[in-house]
Design goal:
Helix content of chain A is 39%, strand content 16%. Chain A is α/β, with parallel strands linked by helices and 403 residues long. Chain B is an alpha+beta fold and 335 residues long. Chain B has 2 domains: 2-69, no CATH class; 126-316, 3-Layer(aba) Sandwich (Glutaredoxin), CATH 3.40.30.10. In chain B, α6 (169-185) links the parallel β3 and β4 (188-193). The chains are: A alpha/beta (403), B alpha+beta (335).
Chain lengths: 403, 335
């Protein structure tokens, strides 16, 4: 991977020099966008701004073709069996909500989730519990925050209709053994939904190899535009699901009293879609495949190892998750005893233009249960450099000395 | 304390920047919480502290450490400084309003509201116009005999005495204001002409004689002399008009007045101009005016205009309100 060449693809990244060049370490929130994605969006608005799948004119046909290609591209990206298994959404949250609202749950059913789920994979189930009396079971992690398969097995009983887990935790970067979990869940008769928002950008996901039933992702975390996402679902399951949002473009026909829904994915894509975003997402998926996940993971691992090694020398600093950086993808989440996490983030920004996230990262439940106020989260991506990592750790050491 | 300081500073900066306006709003929220005995939980102080430390740390870790450890103390120190400077600023504003200078009456130090010091500039005695005011103490009417000087409404309770020069730009600027005050508040008004700009005391003598001849018309003549272009006043009179009045100038004497202009003007005002001009050249007049000049000098004044309002000296051309406040108090416009 020619990092210098790749960085040139990202207009926001400094080409070199400058007093305080941008160091973007908030990739778990959203990544930067390469020029090809921006161009795809621009091209739609500049050259072919029209509706897809409705009108008969040339522009409409062009957009329909573009959206179809994007769907095919994303299907290839996930290795889906067919492009119709790809439902475009606004983000992973909407994908999870779609499943939560469309799967038919009954009182007595239960849903199994992890103990460090993002609110997007917690609140929808809490709402189901409130509405239908569905049980929500929490699988506790091991002390080092890795997934506890034994605890999972203990909770996986016949009442479990759905296992909904974050594939990679945005809290600490730990990835769960998804293939094994899915195998065991299926054996127990449960469906599996993976919140893959944090895994899809960083590792090759093969939905057919995983045999996952549903998988939700966000475009903005994988170089794509904001407001784009995907819900992958096995076609047979998607066919059975009732649509979540209904309206224009979800039905083949309607009378005053009834309607005939279109097959998936159309029946889930109500109303006029974010065509520019979808085209951008298709471009992002292609770009990531071109870069290659082996190179991406190698660079992220090198960055995490470099950062973790330095952070472990800082007194009072605790890294969330396992000590081994290989198990934490591109995320280093930490707190320093006695120092406010927001202050650290603000100082990093002020002194070295380093952008990190601070707070509870939408995983309030985990922090509240442990009475930890919050953490600083540095999340790297393949375009970050070891020099940036060194600047980050040096700045953090300075802050520790001063505070 | 930090919230209060931030609010003041950011409010000022907010005039020029939207970012600072938003921060000022946050600071205000923090201040309101504090004054209502609630915790400032907006994170504002934390945010600002981090920004300050983040900036300082790149220059000096030691300084950043000191600031971090003594942040509350420094906040208090800045708060006290801000309070003191605010009081000082309000005092300056008050003094400027009441005396025309931030530093007090007739004080010439720098004043932000009067950066050029125009309210204190005078035509120096024996100097050139304009000249910077030199702070001198003891400008007073005490032991100064004002009998014989032109006076209006001598019985009035409020008394204004003005030392001015027809050729001084600052006196010209001030005279109409003083006349307005005299008329509006019906005060007593004594006028002392002192020629700081002229080479001779001819206009003093001319005024002296005019007042002797027609006290009422004298004030019109005074107004005329303050409003007529100085170039006209300065024009030298040829020898002939002097001769035509029957007077014989002494050898080498030069009349420092434009009699060609003055004689018809005075006639129009109801004077016997020829008699006034003749009087002005009279040795007795010279002697009387000389005595008056010496009396004026006894006030210790150092430049024109100098105005005494009920005994308080105001040196230099002050704004109208300053004279009015001294006469009638802060709410002078109600009178």
């Amino acid at each position: 991977m020619d990092l210098r060449k790749l960085r040139k693809d990202f207009p926001m990244l400094p080409e070199g020099g400058g007093k305080k060049p941008l160091i973007y370490f908030d990739n778990a929130c959203q990544t930067l966008r390469p020029r090809v994605v921006i161009e795809a969006i621009n091209n739609y608005y500049l050259k072919s701004s029209a509706c897809a799948g409705r009108s008969m004119h040339q522009l409409s046909a062009e957009v329909t073709r573009g959206v179809d290609q994007a769907r095919t591209q994303v299907a290839k990206f996930l290795n889906a069996a067919k492009k119709e298994e790809i439902v475009f959404t606004r983000n992973a949250t909407e994908g999870i909500n779609l499943v939560a609202s469309s799967l038919c749950f009954q009182k007595g059913d239960s849903i199994l989730i992890g103990d460090k789920e993002h609110n997007s994979n917690l609140i929808p189930w809490q709402m189901l519990a409130r509405r239908y009396g569905v049980g929500v079971k929490i699988v506790p992690s091991r002390p080092d925050n890795t997934f506890d398969l034994e605890a999972f097995d203990r909770l996986l009983d016949s009442s479990v209709r759905l296992v909904a887990l974050g594939h990679t935790a945005n809290l600490d970067g730990v990835t769960i053994p998804a293939a094994e979990i899915i195998k065991r869940a299926h054996r127990a008769g449960a469906l599996v939904l993976l919140d893959a928002a944090q895994s899809v950008p960083h590792r090759k996901i093969n939905v057919r190899d995983l045999d996952v039933d549903f998988l939700a992702l966000s475009g903005h975390k994988m170089l794509g535009p904001s407001g784009t996402g995907v819900l992958y679902g096995k076609y047979a399951l998607l066919e059975k699901l009732e649509p979540f949002l209904v309206g224009g473009d979800t039905v083949a026909s309607s009378t005053y009293t009834s309607c005939e829904f279109l097959p998936p994915p159309e029946k889930f894509e109500a109303g006029l879609q974010d065509y520019a975003g979808i085209l951008g997402l298709g471009a992002a998926a292609k770009y990531l495949l071109d870069v290659g996940f082996d190179a991406i993971q190698k660079q992220e691992q090198a960055l995490n190892e470099a950062i973790s090694a330095e952070l472990q020398t800082i007194p009072g600093l605790t890294i969330l998750g396992p000590a081994d950086p290989k198990l934490r993808a591109g995320i280093v989440s930490f707190y320093i005893e006695g120092i406010d996490h927001h202050r650290i983030a603000l100082m990093l920004d002020q002194m070295a233009n380093i952008q990190v996230r601070s707070g509870q990262h939408c995983v309030h439940s985990w922090f509240n249960a442990r009475q930890i106020p919050g953490s600083v989260r540095a999340s790297t991506y393949f375009y970050n450099t070891l020099e940036e990592a060194a600047t980050f750790t040096a700045s953090l050491k300075k802050i520790r000395k001063v505070l | 304390m930090f919230c209060i300081i931030s609010f003041v500073i950011l409010s000022i900066l907010g005039i020029f920047s939207a970012t600072n306006r938003a921060l000022a709003r946050e600071a205000l929220d923090c201040v309101l919480r504090r004054v209502t005995l609630r915790p400032c939980n907006t994170g504002f102080d934390e945010k600002m502290k981090a920004r300050i430390l983040g900036t300082v740390i790149t220059r000096s870790e030691t300084a950043a450490r000191l600031i971090n450890r003594n942040f509350e103390l420094l906040s208090w120190a800045f708060f006290i400084l801000m309070l003191a400077s605010s009081i000082w600023s309000v005092r300056g504003l008050y003094l400027f309003y009441t005396t025309g200078s931030c530093n007090g009456l007739n004080q010439s130090g720098f004043c932000v509201f009067d950066p050029t010091g125009a309210n204190n500039e005078v035509s120096n005695v024996g100097g050139t116009c304009p000249a910077p005011e030199i702070a001198k103490m003891g400008v007073t009417l005490q032991d100064v005999r004002l009998e014989g000087f032109p006076v209006k409404n001598p019985q009035a309770k409020d008394k204004i005495v003005m030392i001015a020069c027809y050729h001084c730009e600052y006196s010209r600027q001030t005279y109409p204001m003083i006349v307005d005050l005299v008329e509006r508040y019906n005060t007593s008004f004594t006028f002392l002409h002192y020629p700081v700009k002229e080479k001779t005391d001819y206009y003093s003598r001319l005024g002296y004689c005019a007042y002797q001849q027609n006290p009422d018309a004298y004030w019109e003549l005074n107004k005329l002399l303050f409003t007529t272009d100085k170039a006209i006043l300065d024009a030298k009179t040829p020898f002939a008009p002097q001769a035509s009045l029957g007077g014989e100038p002494a050898a080498g004497e030069e009349v420092e007045a434009n009699l060609e202009f003055l004689i018809p003007a005075m006639n129009d005002l109801g004077f016997d101009a020829e008699a006034v001009v003749a009087c002005a050249s009279d040795p007795q007049t010279k002697s009387a005016v000389q005595a008056q000049m010496e009396e004026v000098i006894r006030t210790n004044f150092y430049g024109t205009p100098t105005v005494f309002i009920n005994g308080t000296a105001l040196v230099g051309p002050k704004p109208y309100r300053v004279y009015a406040i001294l006469l009638k108090g802060l709410l002078y416009w109600l009178h």
